[in-house]
Amino acid sequence: MSSEVLTREAIPESTIQHGAPGSRGTTASRTLRYAVLIAFVVLVLIPLYVLVVTSLKKSSDISADTAWSLPHQLSVEGWSHAWDSLAPPLFRSLILAVSVAVISSLLGSLNGFVFARWSFPFSQTVFTLFLFGMFIPYQAVMIPLQGMFLQLQHGAPFVDGIVKLIIAHCIYGIPICTLIFRNYYATAVPVEILEAAKVDGAGMLRVLRSIVLPISAPAFVVAMIWQFTSAWNDFLFALFLTTRNNGPVTYALNELAGGQNPDYSSIMAGVLIASLPTLLVYVLLGRYFIGGLMSGSVK
Amino acid sequence: MRRTKTWLPGFLLVLPSIILVGVFVYWLIFKNVFTSLQLSTNFVTDKVVNPGGYKNYTKLLGSDDYQHALLNLLVLTVVFMVGTMLMGLLWAVLLEKGVGAEGFFRSVYLFPMAVSMIAAGVVWRWLLSPAQGEGQAIGLNQLFIKLHLDGLQSSWWSGSSKFSMWAMAIPAIWQLSGYVMALFLAGFRGISDDQREAARIDGASEWKIYRHVLFPQLSPIALSALIILGHMSMKMFDLIYVIAGPNSYKAAVPTTMMWTQLFAQSDPQAAAVNASILLVIVAVVVVPYLVSQSRSDGSR
What we know:
The complex is a heterodimer.
Chain A: H1 3-10, H2 12-15, H3 27-55, H4 77-117, H5 123-135, H6 139-155, H7 162-172, H8 174-188, H9 191-199, H10 204-212, H11 217-233, H12 236-241, H13 249-257, H14 264-284, H15 286-297
Chain B: H1 2-36, E1 40-41, E2 48-50, H2 55-62, H3 64-96, H4 102-110, H5 117-127, H6 139-146, H7 164-189, H8 193-201, H9 206-235, H10 238-243, H11 254-264, H12 268-298
Antiparallel strand pairs in B: 1-2
Helix pairs in contact in B: 1-12, 3-7, 3-9, 4-7, 7-9, 8-9, 9-12, 11-12
């Protein structure tokens, strides 16, 4: 597939339309279709049911035999306990995810513009080399990366915990953000207007500021959501680069869930608390979320 | 000279990113390979742990633990990819003609994508709890008892289970099927209705329309999806780390093994060897794909 499909996908509006007119088929086949669809909804939502139900039980109420029953009496004990242990890392994750979203998308927009509309010799090759960076297993850079950060910390002690993660996510997010913006600009910025501006003597920065950036909002939303979600959900970098005292919420959640005597009501409440921000983004901005998925994957 | 002047600003704008990607991706890969080729000795006994050079690679490749991890990875990858592709395609086919409340179904099927693998892993560890029998079982095993399907109870990924990596693939399938659905759905929507109409007028059955008209046009999307899922599967770490723990032999894959090598065994050379091999495996799949993409882009 060439990038026609991609670019179409990168623009969120077009990803979701209520498709083909009127469904066909007999009433029986339609009923069957709905039955199957609803059965899958139940299956997919099973973990969510477990989370909500268990999180609202008193920890003394939890036993194997009633594991799937609704709580006898509602209790927020689990929630408050989970909140107590997750609040500080939650705050750190928020700083992490927001900074990464902003910085990455700014970088992506500059790069994407150049690769789409202001190419230089071998820019296609450079772009492909960028993209490879998106697919590498980060294990392959993790050991030297740890060493590099350690050295960096000697000179600059503030490069620790969340700061390390911000740096790592911004850099390893360059490929995907560049891709999102490049695909967007390849359709959204007409070559003719660009040429006209050049003829009028506008330089690159002028073109960028007056023509390109004003129409970039959709790509910014997609890239920011993508980076927010991946920084928030990351565990690998967190595990290798941070500690329990300065790590993000995924790190803390793993600690909370990993104890010897699991307190399931607070563990399940913890999962919900740690997932709420990304779920919220998904529910409120689902269209753009999907836009990011598409452009990020269908290269 | 004038030409240089026109492209130079663009190049300068991208230069910081080129340097960052160059250092943090390519230079660090090089350093990792360098580490993987080092000779190392035991800190206390002075005995050689890694002989250095290519022998570090033959040592790891020859070890039973690593082969076990590779086999696990293969099973995980195949089950995960087949499961996710089939589930995603099925959902897309169910939805593509437009059903009422399509948006609702789509949102539900896709929601696991928004959750971190850590969060998903914590829930699924509970769901896949291996304990069985009345008073013991929780998770899915308990649900099976409640539904009087006791025979379906399983030790899932642990103990004597022969299907441990099959069990490990379930949460991954749960997370990513919606994504494949979204890809295929976009593919279906990209095919004009005229083609179906024409086939219908020619008397083709619904199945034949899918088989001969629609599916062939989805094959580029299917290829993309396979590549994405394949490389995700090879990199999968969080889920297994949370569900089975980093030191589980039963569910070990190269990524979890690398963690053990680095921290439990303090053997960075072996960990670097492991990571380099993983990189090669991923590259073998991804590089031809990227190059062909770049060609088709360039020829436009």
